[in-house]
Amino acid sequence: MKLVDSSIRRPVTTAMVVVALLVFGGISVTRMQVDFYPDVTFPMVVVATIYPGAGPLEVESEVTEPMEEGLGTIAGLTDITSRSTENVSAITMQFDWGTNLDAAASDIRDRLDMAQASLPADVQKPFVFKFDPSMMPVLNLGIAGDIDEAELADIAEEISQRLQRVPGVAAVNVGGQVVRQIQVELDLRELALSGVTSEQLAMALKAQNLNFPVGTISTEEQRYLIRLVGEYGDLDQLRNTAVGARRDGTPVLVRQIATVNWAPEERDALVRMDGREAIYMWIQRRPDANTIQVSDALIREVEKVKKGLPAAVDFKVFWDSAQPVRNSVNSVTMNLIFGGILAAMVLFLFLRRFRATMFVAFAIPVSVFFALLGMYLAGFTLNILSMAGLAIAVGMVVDNGVVVFENIFRRRELGEEPFKAASEGASTVAMAITASTLTTIAVFLPLLMLRGILQIFFKELAFAIIFALIASLGIALTLIPMLAARYLKMPKPGTQEKGLRGWSERFYCGIETAYSRLIGWAIGHRRLVVIITVLVLLASLGLIPLIGTEFLPRQFSDYTEIYAEMPVGTSLEKTNEGAARIEQYVVEKWGGELKAVLVQVGGGTNVFSAIFGGARASTAEIDLVMKPGANAL
């Protein structure tokens, strides 16, 4: 066979190709994204619309229903559902797998532009979201402190700006902070005596708090841009604003009819971390960013931020969503390494020669790195499924090498020259191992023909195995013959094996003898063997209903969420009381196993509330992080 002969005659070329595969495979590992599951983009689009101050019925009749009518005829749409709650409308659109979501989102925006004219004036512009795993937070942070709430909010804002600059970060979201606003408290008696109405006061303040361009003025030599600067710079300017005139013509100033001060905005959400009022921050990564790398960079930046914070401020990581990814991928990686070591040990038990074992076992790292190179070029990620595919392939990649080496070894024992034994020994079984490899690959091809989410999940597993098997076939027909021809040392003919090797030789001869007797008995009792085989097959099939089925195995996570909902219309304070009782019960019962507790009450009128559950004043969420090794709730 030309391939075998060329690899034997050109050992340097063969070695360089193998080294190149190892190098490029190693480079691919450093550049591949690491995630828990393969990159799954669900064929789902959510249209979220904010209607401040509206109840669920108004949101449904004035926003959701008109928009559903316009969106219901989009091509490829399989299902449309909606949820109307206080202030928010969320319409979820499910498409066929394989639908171009970019084109679908563009079509949706066109329909929304046409429907915008029929919506109430206070309705904000709808948001269109495509479901992407990168939308899920990479890092959840909490900041608490025994300082003024407004000052704490300012610190949180500064921190969010620093974290936003970390490479790979797409957005830093902040919730639960107190927002300051200028509060104008009217003195109704003075207001009545002044003759100014509250509407006139509001209009006057709006008219004098402006900042916009008004045009240009040109001279013979220069051209000037004119801008009206009228925004208030401080509270005194607002207090001294004239909003009307008395009957005698004297101006009415704001400070004469009202008190102007900074005050916190009415809160629509409350956050507690470990029993203290806190501000909650969650960070999203860019779609092309590596989850673990972004998490590591953020944690390093958090440690730097802590050094510059006041002593009274507690800033810490509440939950690192990259940690389960690290644990899972590291676990599969260690299983892959130990699997390769165990495979090499089993080879040694049968080959009984260290050098021969290394020849065959070398196929494991080369095949794995070739598979990693192929996965990188195909755009795959390192996840538990792709790594599991490599772990499965470890036991398969040595099969071809064992067959080739055994044939070469047998010919060497018969006295053939090293180069001739390697060439003819590998060429004799080349078609056999090629057919065997192709039949194994054919087993995994149906996984690539699945549709929907199953194809996405099993595609990377199947390709990892296929790439590794292709590499193992190449190694068996090139590297192993070259190594066996040049570096395999054989004992002289007629040499009697001694010691452990001699004992193992006698042991394996005994096994061969027993196996020969078993084969002879099976041939003599063919009908009985067939009946037993069929009965075992039927009994195995009968056990399938007892095993049970599920899409994914149950996972135990250190992170647990508890959702609570009060009757619609419940105030934020009342919901907070109920959430506090649940929090107290959980802490009293499982306090020793808890690492951190975060309580979120309400949610307000923001787009994330519309998408992720429609949080409102009557809802609460309690997030629990368990200590390592603790029993899950």
Please render the helix and strand layout as text.
Layout: H1 2-9, H2 11-31, E1 44-50, H3 56-71, E2 77-84, E3 88-95, H4 101-115, E4 127-130, E5 139-145, H5 149-164, E6 169-175, E7 180-186, H6 188-194, H7 198-208, E8 211-218, E9 223-229, H8 235-239, E10 242-245, E11 251-253, H9 254-257, E12 258-264, E13 269-273, E14 276-285, H10 291-307, E15 313-320, H11 322-351, H12 354-361, H13 363-377, H14 384-413, H15 418-448, H16 453-477, H17 479-487, H18 499-524, H19 526-542, H20 544-547, E16 559-565, H21 572-590, E17 594-602, H22 607-611, E18 619-626
Antiparallel strand pairs: 1-3, 1-4, 2-3, 5-14, 5-15, 6-14, 7-12, 8-9, 10-11, 13-14, 13-17, 16-18, 17-18
Features:
633 residues, alpha+beta, Multidrug efflux transporter AcrB transmembrane fold, Alpha-Beta Plaits, four-stranded antiparallel beta sheet, 22 helices
What does this structure look like?
The chain is α+β, with helices and mostly antiparallel strands. The chain has six domains: 2-37 and 325-491, Up-down Bundle (Multidrug efflux transporter AcrB transmembrane fold); 44-131, 2-Layer Sandwich (Alpha-Beta Plaits), CATH 3.30.70; 137-179 and 267-320, Multidrug efflux transporter AcrB pore domain like (Alpha-Beta Plaits, 2-Layer Sandwich), CATH 3.30.70; 181-264, Multidrug efflux transporter AcrB TolC docking domain, DN and DC subdomains, CATH 3.30.2090; 498-544, no CATH class; 559-626. The chain has 22 helices and 18 strands. The chain has helices at residues 2-9, 11-31, 56-71, 101-115, 149-164, 188-194, 198-208, 235-239, 254-257, 291-307, 322-351, 354-361, 363-377, 384-413, 418-448, 453-477, 479-487, 499-524, 526-542, 544-547, 572-590, 607-611; strands spanning 44-50, 77-84, 88-95, 127-130, 139-145, 169-175, 180-186, 211-218, 223-229, 242-245, 251-253, 258-264, 269-273, 276-285, 313-320, 559-565, 594-602, 619-626. The strands form five sheets. Strands 5, 6, 13, 14, 15, 16, 17 and 18 form an eight-stranded antiparallel β-sheet that branches. A four-stranded antiparallel β-sheet has the order 2-3-1-4. A two-stranded antiparallel sheet has the order 7-12. A hairpin with a 2-residue loop joins strand 13 (269-273) and strand 14. Helix 12 packs across helix 14 (384-413), helix 13 (363-377) packs antiparallel against helix 14 (384-413) and helix 15 (418-448) runs antiparallel to helix 17 (479-487). It is elongated. The model has no long low-confidence stretch (mean pLDDT 83).
